[in-house]
């Protein structure tokens, strides 16, 4: 792991206390199931409502988990990381790289890039419909 990552202002430590439903989030990734192209890291895929992570508020979907209780997650399978979480105990310390724009899958803006294309096809479909109705009326009068 790049040493500069640990000194980055985007890397934070988050302590969570395991609740009745666990830590309250799901993960994706690992060397066997990359979530981000050319990155075998472990990412938060879902924060469960009212879970320990949601109540704490610092962990967000898209954050990359670098370590659990000081154990780095670099070059680990998804299953191995799940086992680390399962056996981590009641108090869990996470080292997290906060979500960066390049880690977001899909468009970066709240509005999809294909909006103008969809608008174009919608307009084209409406015009085709009007043309069909006018053709029907024209040929019916003959």
Automatic annotation (TrEMBL):
It is found in: Mitochondrion outer membrane. The chain crosses the membrane at residues 118-139. Keywords: Membrane, Mitochondrion, Mitochondrion outer membrane, Transmembrane, Transmembrane helix. Signal peptide: none annotated. One of its GO terms (cellular component) is cell junction. Gene3D superfamilies: 2.30.42.10. Pfam families: PDZ. SMART domains: PDZ. GO terms for molecular function: protein kinase binding. GO terms for biological process: cell-cell adhesion; establishment or maintenance of epithelial cell apical/basal polarity; receptor clustering; receptor localization to synapse. Residues 13-100 form the PDZ domain. CDD domains: PDZ_SYNJ2BP-like (cd06709). The keyword Membrane applies. Binds (via the PDZ domain) to isoform 2A of SYNJ2 (via the unique motif in the C-terminus). Interacts (via C-terminus) with RALBP1. Interacts (via PDZ domain) with ACVR2A (via C-terminus) and ACVR2B (via C-terminus). Forms a ternary complex with ACVR2A and RALBP1. Interacts with MAPK12. Interacts with DLL1; enhances DLL1 protein stability, and promotes notch signaling in endothelial cells. This is Synaptojanin-2-binding protein. The gene is synj2bp.
């Amino acid at each position: 792991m790049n040493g500069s990552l640990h000194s980055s202002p985007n890397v934070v430590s988050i302590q969570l206390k395991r609740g009745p439903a666990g830590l309250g989030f799901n993960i994706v990734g690992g060397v066997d199931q990359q979530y981000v192209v050319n990155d075998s890291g472990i990412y938060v895929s879902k924060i469960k409502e009212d879970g320990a992570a949601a109540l704490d508020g610092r962990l967000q979907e898209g954050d990359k988990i670098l370590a659990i209780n000081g154990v780095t997650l670099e070059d680990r399978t998804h299953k191995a990381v799940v086992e680390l979480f399962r056996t981590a105990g009641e108090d869990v310390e996470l080292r997290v790289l906060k979500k960066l724009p390049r880690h977001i899958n899909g468009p970066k803006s709240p509005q999809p890039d294909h909006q103008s294309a969809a608008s174009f096809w919608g307009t084209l479909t409406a015009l085709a419909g009007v043309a069909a109705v006018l053709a029907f009326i024209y040929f019916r009068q003959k």
